[in-house]
Specification:
Mean pLDDT: 82
Strand order of the largest sheet: 8-9-10-11-12-13-14-15-16-17-18-19
Shape: elongated
CATH topology of the largest domain: Porin
Low-confidence stretches: 4-8, 14-29, 419-431
Structural class: mainly beta
Distance between the termini: 40 Å
Order of helices and strands: HEEEHEEEEHEEEEEEEEEEEHE
Length: 431
């Protein structure tokens, strides 16, 4: 009992000690240059927060947006060169109200994550300077540049063409089970302000072998696809293009299937604001040809169809959170009863100080499975999902609620035992 009392007292001392210093309550802030540094809330899911805090120690990182003097929202999207484009949106608050800015960094696909991280952080530093310049920490900042820097014309011998090859084989083995999975893909793209061309070729093979005393059975599921997208810009709100998809799939009963869909799209907001908000409406109408491996439930082995599709996509990323929603409906012209409706979405909201709520999900009404095989499926085909099964709907989703409280500042970096997360973004993990 005495040992327990002594150990408990020791823990209380450890807990209480950080809050007292020489008989004075530490909650009373000392007037230092650091205490008057800019309070920053960084909303960035792709940032390495430990690295950011180490490289930029002259601001105070706060965990609550309401405590911030500068709110920074970082968004990213795929760039035409195969890399990513990162947009840093600075919004001044309180005494910095009205001091807003937007900076953009585009990475090359051949850069390492370390170089990208360094260059992104340099851009972040530049964006912070206008705020830091109004604090006592200005005297601690030195600005330098590469004196060997030269201005020269950029010559692109690839003319904006990007090629990416990938193969992903995987093998598992047990005494009574073997599995070989192989995925191969080729991506070719060319993106300019006027056009967008993407060609995706992929192949999947999933071979499973079950070894029993009296039986040795192998099941194979495979698919191949070729997807072509061509888009022509028609201004800040309109674009037109073509979606041409071809493929084959043993599980979906397609010996060969292709969709040829001319499309037009209108964005209520200018495309130049796409990293912050979008409201896109796309209409597609075209031709579909299907050749089936087995006779379909409608007693055909091939058919020619005409279809239409309408898609509504909404995205917004602001200080209070983000919303991503898409609603897609389609039907065949020869039979309007053969249709589908699919809703996908994710919402992230900061409710009150320290409390945030996220939800994501999908729901679909399905009444257009013309490709289903005629006849019953075996037990193995159902359990292993070897062949597509009839369904009227699909639904899925999840949610999370997070509440954080305590000190509003989180400037300290301590990498021992791996990362445990970071306020305002950055992610976590063991490394």
């Amino acid at each position: 009992m005495n040992r327990i009392i002594i150990f408990t007292g020791f823990l209380l001392c450890l807990i209480y000690t950080p809050f007292t210093l020489s008989g004075q309550d530490v909650d009373i802030p000392l007037e230092t240059p650091r205490s008057r540094a800019v309070r920053v809330f960084l909303d960035c899911r792709s940032c390495d927060m430990n690295y950011t805090k180490q490289e930029i120690p002259y601001v105070n990182y706060v965990r609550d947006v309401k405590e911030a003097q500068v709110f920074i929202l970082v968004t990213d999207q795929g760039a035409g060169n195969g890399g990513r484009q990162y947009t840093y949106r600075f919004q001044g608050m309180g005494q910095y109200a009205g001091m807003n800015d937007t900076l953009v960094y585009s990475s090359n696909p051949d850069l390492t994550s370390s170089i990208i991280r360094e260059q992104r952080t340099n851009l972040f530093k530049m964006g912070l300077m206008r705020y830091v310049a109004r604090t006592p920490l200005l005297s601690e900042i030195t600005i330098t540049h590469n004196r060997e820097l030269e201005t020269e014309e950029v010559i692109d011998r690839w003319n904006n063409w990007i090629f990416e090859l990938q193969t992903s084989p995987r093998y598992n083995a047990e005494q009574s089970y073997r599995r070989l999975f192989v995925r191969n893909s080729v991506e070719i793209s060319k993106v300019t302000p006027d056009i967008k061309l993407e060609i995706d070729i992929s192949q999947d093979l999933n071979r499973q072998r079950f070894i029993e005393e009296d039986r040795d059975t192998t099941y194979v599921r495979s698919s191949e696809s070729l997807d072509i997208l061509f888009v022509k810009s028609l201004g800040e709100h309109w674009s037109a293009g073509l979606r041409w998809n071809m493929g084959a799939s043993t599980s979906s009963n397609y010996k060969f299937n292709q969709e040829f869909l001319p499309s037009i799209e209108y964005d209520l907001y200018p495309y130049s604001l796409s990293t912050h908000k979008q409201l896109r409406i796309m209409y597609s109408a075209g031709y579909q040809y299907s050749s089936y491996i087995d006779t379909s439930i409608y007693n055909v082995t091939r058919e020619n169809l005409f279809k239409q599709e309408l898609r509504l996509a909404y995205q917004i990323q602001e200080r209070w959170g983000s919303v991503n929603l898409s609603l897609t409906g389609s039907n065949y012209f020869n039979d309007f009863s053969k249709n589908s409706l699919q809703l996908n979405g994710s919402v992230r909201i900061r409710i009150i100080r320290g409390l945030s709520f996220s939800i994501n999900g999908e729901a679909g009404y399905i009444n257009n499975q013309l490709n289903l095989r005629k006849g019953d499926l075996s037990e193995a085909e159902r359990l292993l999902r070897l062949k597509e099964q009839a369904t009227k709907f699909q639904i899925g989703g999840g949610l999370s609620i997070t509440y954080t409280f305590g000190s509003i500042f989180n400037n300290v970096v301590n990498p021992r035992f791996g990362r445990t997360g970071g306020g305002g973004g950055g992610g976590g993990g063991f490394f």
